[in-house]
Design brief:
By secondary structure, the protein is α/β, with parallel strands linked by helices. Helices cover about 30% and strands about 15% of the residues. The protein contains 19 helices and 21 strands. Strands 1, 2, 3, 4, 5, 6, 7, 8, 9 and 10 form a 10-stranded mixed β-sheet that branches. Strands 13-12-11-14-17-19-20-21 form an 8-stranded mixed β-sheet, sandwiched between helices. Helix 5 links the parallel strand 5 and strand 6. Helix 3 packs parallel to helix 4 and helix 17 packs across helix 18.
């Protein structure tokens, strides 16, 4: 019985001990390694072929450790499999150009999307998959456990305890996956101190601390200047408030980061008040601290916000509104990307955001043929969580209208449906049509040699499309043919919209499947920027009582 060969059951632990021993001479005190020794540290703890995670959230970045990884000797460290949620810095791709890394699994690439597509096309990088955030985090506990993690925080003590503060984001998720699978965690911090405001990551999850030469890079990704919101976006926001928010009584929701949803936030204290919506909609949010939400918070619309991450300039405002935001015992917010994604998936009744393209069936994507941008958390926010078992008014009403569901589960059962809303102008920048016969995602699938086209939101999850032409209530459609007709009715002068049949549209309007501004009783002449509670960033500062401190790029006074 059994083999004569004795199996080793703690090989990972033994391997880690060996790696740690090889760099013990670099540790100065406690777990602190000097910045000038960081490259040698990485060459000592990383082995060829390792899975390595560089923390790069939407905003805060382990930028110094990313630079150090680019400087390791490719004769010593090579063929790494990078597993990280965001590829936003040039160094994140430089490691592939230098031969240090070989394969990438990720979620969102933003400004590096074009270069990433070039690398894939030129064979410099093997692309695993484009994930949602939660999906990638889940694989950290499955087949993509990082062997080494390079994380980032504001402060650390010499024992290795970390303070991640306002921008905790995904540090706990990464550190736990690695530390409890016998991996190695290296933390970059802004400073090493004797006493932390609070402990976000305990010292026994962290192996090394490096004080970076300068504070980590952070991007104000969720700030939208009200001065750039257009009259058309105001009209769409008015339709959203009256035709969706009010009609379904949406109390819990997630907003995307576009100007259209910023317009909705700035209309709550004006048009929302006019519609008597306070207390009836928008009480609970899962989103970052959007500055454009300040007037709605100050007007008493918002009860609670949990955040994926922080936002530059919002620190003092958030700290002073502890009834609304999740504040730690030290007085600062603790964001958490994984927890907020779970809230967005299961606890929110609606996701509303923008996209670049919608096809004739209602599938949408932000992918283009030459940019591998990824989707971040949108597919999780914008899907109907089949595991949901609690009910709410908005969820039930949307489900009751989704009659197709009865054909799948039988007429006796009551089940709701999450509202998934796409707001898009029929033509985007440079008059590029938003409605297309076929998504660019198919070209990208071919260019990047992907198994499936990168669709952001599938048609069977999408419940509403809002354009300047009107609202298509996709959840009220009896079948795919009716969905396609509803899409044509709101697609304007795009190639899809020009296929509209006026008689078909008339019938859909009579059924309430399509509603124009006129059908909603909206006075289009009122749809202009005068409706916004704040017209510019300076107004937001005034609404905040001076607590909001916008980054310099948003100040023009």
């Amino acid at each position: 019985m059994g083999s004569d060969v004795k199996r080793v059951w703690n090989s990972l632990e033994l391997d880690t001990e060996q790696r740690l021993k090889s760099v013990a001479h670099l540790v100065k005190e406690g777990k602190v390694v000097a910045a000038e020794d960081a490259v040698a540290l990485l060459e000592g703890v990383i082995r060829p072929g390792d899975k390595v995670c560089i923390e790069g959230d939407n905003q805060k970045q382990a930028d110094f450790l990313a630079e150090c990884l680019c400087q390791v000797d490719p004769e010593k460290v090579y063929d790494l499999h990078m597993v990280q949620s965001v590829v936003s810095l040039s160094t994140h791709l430089d490691v592939f150009e230098k031969g240090v890394a070989k394969k990438l699994d990720y979620s969102f690439s933003g400004p590096q999307a074009g270069r990433l597509a070039e690398f894939v096309r030129d064979g410099k990088l093997q692309l695993g998959a484009i994930h949602t955030y939660l999906e990638l985090f889940a694989r950290y506990f499955g087949d993509l456990v990082p062997r080494v993690a390079l994380v980032v925080g504001y402060q650390a003590d010499k024992k290795g305890n970390l303070y991640t503060g306002f921008n905790t984001e995904e540090t706990p998720m990464i550190a736990e996956a690695v530390a409890f699978k016998q991996g190695i965690v290296v933390a970059q911090v802004n400073e090493v101190v004797d006493e932390l405001p609070r402990v976000d990551i305990p010292a026994d999850w962290v192996d090394f601390v490096v004080e970076a030469p300068k504070p980590f890079y952070i991007e104000p990704l969720f700030t939208r200047d009200p001065g750039l919101i257009t009259d058309v976006q105001v009209l769409m926001a008015m339709m959203a408030l009256k035709g969706v928010y009010a009609e379904y009584g949406v109390q819990s929701l997630n907003h995307g980061i576009g100007f259209a949803t910023a317009a909705i936030e700035l209309l709550l204290p004006t048009y929302g008040e006019e519609l008597d919506l306070k207390g009836k909609v928008c009480s609970y949010f899962a989103l970052n601290p959007h500055p454009t939400l300040i007037p709605a918070i100050e007007s008493g619309f918002v009860k609670s916000i949990h955040s994926f991450g922080g936002e530059l300039g919002m620190e003092k405002y958030v700290q002073a509104r502890s009834d609304v935001f999740f504040i730690g015992p030290d007085g600062t917010m603790r964001s958490n990307r994984a927890n907020c994604q779970v809230a967005g998936l299961y606890a929110m009744d609606m996701f509303i955001g923008g996209t670049l393209q919608i096809d004739k069936y209602g599938n949408s994507s932000t992918a283009t043929a030459n940019r591998i941008a990824g989707f971040g958390g949108a597919p999780n926010m914008g899907c109907d969580a089949k595991g949901r078992r609690h009910s709410s008014g908005a969820w039930l009403k949307c489900g009751q209208e989704y009659t197709v569901q009865q054909g799948e589960i039988g007429p006796a059962l009551t089940r709701g449906k999450k509202l998934v809303v796409q707001m898009v102008e029929t033509f985007g920048e440079k008059m590029v049509p938003a409605f297309v016969e076929e998504l660019d995602a198919f070209k990208l699938q071919e260019n990047a040699n992907l198994d499936i086209p990168p669709v952001m939101i599938y048609s069977d999850d999408l419940t509403h499309i809002i354009t300047e032409e009107g609202i298509a209530y996709m959840n009220r459609c009896a079948n795919l043919q009716e969905k396609m007709a509803a899409i044509r009715a709101v697609a304007g002068y795009t190639e899809i919209g020009l296929q509209e049949n006026p008689n078909e549209t008339k019938a859909l309007r009579e059924k309430g499947v399509v509603k124009t501004p006129q059908d909603l009783g909206i006075d289009v002449s009122k749809a202009n920027r005068s409706m916004l509670a704040a017209k510019n960033v300076r107004d937001l500062v005034e609404w905040s009582g001076g607590l909001y401190n916008p980054p310099a790029r948003f100040r023009n006074w």
